[in-house]
Design brief:
This protein has ten helices and twelve strands. By secondary structure, the chain is an alpha+beta fold. It has two domains: 1-121, 2-Layer Sandwich (60s Ribosomal Protein L30, Chain: A), CATH 3.30.1330; 122-311, PurM-like C-terminal domain (Phosphoribosyl-aminoimidazole Synthetase, Chain A, domain 2, Alpha-Beta Complex), CATH 3.90.650.10. The protein has a seven-stranded mixed sheet, sandwiched between helices. The structure holds cobalt (II) ion (2 copies).
């Protein structure tokens, strides 16, 4: 066993011989959008993401599902599965099977298995002071999804958020895997704990601090305008929990802080790159068609109550 549940990592890693290891994860959730096909796509992209975040290549998937079978219109369940399958195919992942139960609330996702080079596992614990932190997707899916549910999201804003959530993290993961060993020190995907929470976990696991340059953090189009009326319970609890280990320096608007804590579904990768490899990593991401925005850096830890400094 190389990585298990104890380090709050994205997925577990099990080595079965010197050069080969398995990376495994499971993830499922309730619908975040109305369209069943898009929901299936997002669930698949989200489940695959934890394998990419570890530096692995996903190979196979098993569906995990719960449906109120008697209450759904015909075709809904099939559309969810088809949306998921379209993303698995795009990722080159084989669907082997799965298990569905009758449930009062819809739930859908996958258990994903991949292969990973045991010498190049990107855990949360590899961050080093001086590393550049790159983020590959804009924030705001939690707030926009809440606005969609309440009918407050402009169509274009909703479409951009859905497109972002359905986008695989494959392109950045492939680009980073092609870099020389040691270029990338750590990686995680941004999901329920939001940018600050996941940065905080990485910092704590690595015993370094993180500085986030809030003005550079990419945000989903239209998200800022939706913050005040569409905050989520998850965002509030993230702000309470991780706020205790976060220091805000200077003027950062409350709306922006809320977005930094916004729980993401199928968010981007947060990648820690060695300073000497920063240019090369940024170039590799750009060539893969990915906006890898540098949103901060790792710094020596000064005090445990300020693991994350937002400037
Ligand atoms: Co994750
Ligand atoms: Co997960």
């Amino acid at each position: 066993m190389l990585v298990d549940y104890r380090t709050s990592d994205d997925a577990g890693v099990y080595r079965w011989d010197d050069s080969s290891a398995l990376v495994q994860t499971v993830d499922f959730f309730t619908p975040i959008v109305d369209d069943p096909f898009a929901y299936g796509q997002i669930a698949a992209a989200n489940s695959l993401s934890d394998v990419y975040a570890m530096g692995g290549v996903p190979l196979t998937a098993l569906a995990v599902a719960g449906f109120p079978v008697d209450e759904l219109e015909p075709g809904v369940i099939q559309a969810v599965f088809e949306g998921g399958l379209s993303k698995l195919r795009e990722a080159g992942v084989a669907l082997l099977g799965g298990h569905t139960v009758k449930d009062a609330e819809i739930k859908f996702g996958y258990s994903v298995t991949g292969r990973i080079d045991p010498d190049r596992v990107l855990s949360n614990a590899g961050l080093q002071a001086g590393d550049a932190l790159l983020l590959t997707k804009p924030l705001g899916t939690g707030i926009v999804a809440t606005a969609i549910k309440k009918g407050r999201a402009p169509e274009g804003v909703a479409a951009k958020a859905i497109e972002s959530m359905a986008t695989l993290n494959r392109a950045p993961a492939d680009a980073l895997r092609d870099l020389p060993a040691g270029a990338v020190h750590a990686c995680t995907d941004i999901t329920g704990f939001g940018l600050v929470g996941h940065a905080c976990e990485m910092a704590a696991a690595s015993a370094v601090g993180v500085r986030i340059d809030s003005a550079r953090v990419p945000l989903l189009e239209g998200a800022t305008a939706l913050v005040s009326r569409n905050q989520t319970a998850g965002g509030d609890s993230n702000a309470r929990h991780f706020g205790e280990r976060t220091e805000i320096v200077g003027e950062v608007s409350a709306d922006l802080v809320a977005l930094l804590h916004d729980p993401q579904t199928s968010g981007g990768l947060l990648v820690a790159v060695a300073p000497a490899a920063r240019e090369r990593a940024a170039q590799a991401l750009a060539e893969a068609g990915v906006d890898g925005v540098q949103i901060g850096e790792a710094v020596p830890v000064q005090d445990a109550s300020a693991l994350v400094r937002i400037t």
